[in-house]
């Protein structure tokens, strides 16, 4: 028995597959854009791209938060309601009241943090499954918003111009909202990939039991993941208010399904442990682009939902097949004592 | 989990097919003739001199709550109900679905209201319940969006269909300079009002004086702010030469204006249609919108209250030709099929918009 | 960990089942006493009609959740069934053909779910979120945004009518028959025993010679079939076939089932509790509406009840344990 | 061995789970630079001790001292922080993460801005593997690693922590001889660096090769702690078992009847290959071998809960379809599986439901079950097996291990099997019940049932079996008659090398 010469750490096949996973979405996107552009070249005009990116920004911010929760083997169905509550809070704050943008963003995120903490504490310390908790808070947060709004609507003309400008202004042609979404994406992506905290989230989702034995503060991290998801949903609420200018209590109703769809299509496994926020954001981009493309291609818009559903099934089905093949491949690559 | 189940399902299918093959059974064409509408007797004869009752319980059930246009409408209703010393009530779903409206109608029957003023989300789905209400002695007045004629006593029409359709085309033609592509951004594809206006518009557009106007597309924003927003976006992308978007719905016109005002299309594409002055003020002032029209929605709710009260008090029965007084609005005559027309729409421009607050 | 915990678990299940039934009865009594016209026979009819779709769909959903899976696509299956019903009716097909075809369609939709969940082994949550979007989308593709009305009065009247001169709605028969069928299957047949065993431990069930995959597949078929039926009844009740019929119903159904004491992790639950859960939600909604409490309050109450139904027993247990040590 | 203060001192700790006292007043010391064996039968409380050291369980009473200071090990994080590394019997890896990340979790090397230095992390993992002499790609995910490789990653994990106390709970069970040697070399170097090693194993040759002292436990109690130099294996075994071995295994001599179970060329990649054997009526055949050698997989494949790639299984001359436990049951096969809690019983269901679960169809009348027949049948069979319980409606999880096993046996005996397969039938149950189970198997064989027994307890194999089949790495490598079968011959066949007992 001699000490072995270790092969230089090489790119594992799984890495390649993971890359391929996101590559798949990119390919689908390219194909979609190509086909749509051939039929109507204005689809790639500056305005059109800006519109798609703006639409993606909100969904992507939500999807990033959702991905963080899903990676820990949980789910947050309350994001649509949190978005609504945050958007209405921000709208009320700004109603005939000229506040700078930054505190407004913080206020929106703050609302989300509180909602997320409620979810997280109930999941962790109440021992109630995330699905049940967030299904419940989906109703509760929405109900609170309705109570508060009482049927009123906040219109664009009641909001300060500075805030509405924030919704439409651009920096070298890129809207602020998109920049903000990219910032969120990059920060979350880096934390998940390069910080201990991020890796612990993956570990918890991959094997909750092993995570406990490894001394990971599962409770704190779980609450933390929900707080992040809530905060980002709150932030998305501010973006929503800035982009649409009109806010009523129903803002963001039904968003949760789009968000979960984006995350699943983006390759985040529903049982945790794998996937990236990049994938989730790409999923959001793909879904938004499909919506726009259908309108441009003059395909009956009613197909959109069916296509989204089909995509989800396709994505999880394909992931499954790839996983089975990779697993088979990995088994054959056992270690050898030299 | 028995192996018998597949056979069972198959048998069911075979049975179904067999039925079709035999050609038996009830089809739509059978029922179209046979389904006689349920008629609820309008009660005794009208007595035009009967006094308006006090303490009438009048309930408003709009398509959905949380809609600013609706708020203005029912606001007018509240004023009228207070004038006649009645009890005002407002209920409604948060989603514009017929099924939730049915539950509310049922509740109102339980609560023994005297008048239900309703904007139907589906002209047929609410029918059985409305008829139940009428059987229980409740007067049913529809506004905004009519229910089937057989299940309401009167319909408050904001303006004659013809009048609105013509005025929409007139505005579009002015804004397009008499020629070019126009598109319509409507509410839902089965919205009763919008569809009848669009029909009139299409007839108008077919006339020789409008031959240079081309209607390229009717899009539907479902009266949903975001949906309308994206639909406007889609229209402008698909039709680069579009000159005017006509949106005969307050949600649609506001969303389209908001999109255009912030996009590169501003100044190139005109928006018009039916909108609320308060919502549109900003876009009129920034030049996105030159003119749009609307009746005063508060008057609709107001008129509905008086119509319902008159009916409940026995002044009218809903028959054509009957007259009743509607407070500050003066005297109204019931038209064919129980329709009561409010009056001609008002056009709003930068010059006059500040005189209105609704 | 096991011994003590499991003892209290049994007690907890029994307690919750009794508790939810007691709470329901209490709510019914209080509502009848305090809310005007809640206790009238006409209101009873409205109440039954209002909770009809939730009650029906909750029955197979209970079995599905007891096996540890979930079916979020039920409301969309209901909508698709309704849309297809309208489409075929417009195409001048006889209603006697349409109804069985819609039931068959429901079964097929369920089978698609079952296929993905059992044969491909995909997580049911993701699968049925996918088919939730897919089926609803197809419903819109079939019928667009239009509504189809004019269904034959013979059928619509039956659905909204009552038995003879009694105040008992006809559809109550459907609910009772199906509730008995599902109740018996779950609690007094080998299939029911398998449902519990599979939900509590799929592996142990396999080692006992059961076939979890097949069982789940047929439960999804049953879930789809009942959703199809609910779609038909919904359409007839409102005499209006629309693609958006029943949208969002899945959440109310899951809430009712969990409120009824069924564990989201599978293996635990009882049908009487679920029925109580359905009635509780429906009665609360009805009573609050009659008292002019807004819809919003109801949302909050539903959400809170849902969380409390799982949280309360958990808290009770941990308090008990703390006291013991 | 170093003297002075012990690194770890366990003082009179007790731990109960419900009514079951798993550990009672156990005390022992661990010194730095010492390798200390902990032995005892299954269920003696060793794993509970390990879990208390790992911070998973908190002792009900007693204290754990580290370097003379009482330690509060409330969570695994506490234990980790206190310098205790635990290698569990069943590896606890994160399947989705890479091997390098698994090793470094919580201690990842950090670069700029506190980001994880991946290159350094991979390098560390590679160095650890070099030290262990194995080649596992640090960049591959843990999913799909063999049990042996997983165990090696666990060991690398403990090494990377520079722990002062390393607890190894049967780390060698699935390793080959070479891997074991390598592990021991690493363990010795750890020990020589001053760490305290706690080593749990059932292989006495490993214990004597590695350790200096041994603590023996029985039924949750501390029996004695001795220098290994001063005790023979026989004495150790006697102290562990607490009785004479011979009397335990009452196999009656039976003349075997016709072939009841015939297995030919059974294969399932990559678990086992070309397995062929017969079991006759009245015979007890043991399937021996190391953990991970494929024994359980073979019997699960015979019963049909696992698939098979090729080969045939016949019961009394009739071929069984693959993957159909239902058909196997109908043909008279019963399987008492290895893992009672996961496979044998539905822990959340009542005793009654568990006993009647495979027979619910035959107990139904016109397809309905009203409860009465199930209850009567469950009572009859639990009584036959003298199961002790409160009420039939109690959850089976409330019973002790032995009574749980009786419920499993009742459940399967009630199906009147002609071929009874038992996988580790006495794992984790008390001595008295163990004897009952052995008597029962013997009686069944006498009644003409063909019994196939998978067991890792050599004495049980030698005492009960008419024939011993030995598996190694997925293949059947030896068939030994009762007369030929000795601990040496079985171990030799199982490990493929000379055992030094």
Give a structural overview.
The complex is a heterotetramer of chains A (338), B (358), C (325) and D (501). Chain B has two domains: 57-158 and 297-346, Rossmann fold; 161-291, Response regulator (Rossmann fold). Helix content of chain B is 41%, strand content 18%. Chain B is built from eleven helices and 14 strands. Chain B has helices at 4-22, 28-34, 68-83, 98-110, 127-135, 161-176, 192-206, 225-238, 250-261, 277-285, 297-312; strands at 57-61, 87-90, 115-118, 139-143, 154-157, 180-186, 213-220, 242-247, 270-273, 291-294, 323-325, 331-333, 339-341, 346-349. In chain B, the strands form four sheets. In chain B, strands 2-1-3-4-5-13 form a six-stranded parallel beta sheet, with helices on both faces. In chain B, strands 7-6-8-9 form a four-stranded parallel beta sheet, with helices on both faces. With 325 residues, chain C is mainly alpha-helical. Chain C has a single domain, classed as ABC transporter involved in vitamin B12 uptake, BtuC (Orthogonal Bundle). Chain C has 13 helices and no strands. Chain C has helices at 2-34, 41-66, 74-90, 95-119, 124-143, 153-160, 170-188, 190-200, 202-207, 212-238, 249-259, 271-290, 295-324. Chain C starts with a helix and ends with a helix. The longest helix of chain D has 16 residues, at 177-192. Chains in contact: A-B, A-C, A-D, B-C, C-D. At the B-C interface, helix 1, helix 2 and helix 4 of B face helix 2, helix 4, helix 6, helix 10 and helix 12 of C. Strand 3 of chain A pairs antiparallel with strand 7 (134-135) of chain D. Chain D: GO terms for molecular function: ATP binding; ATP hydrolysis activity.
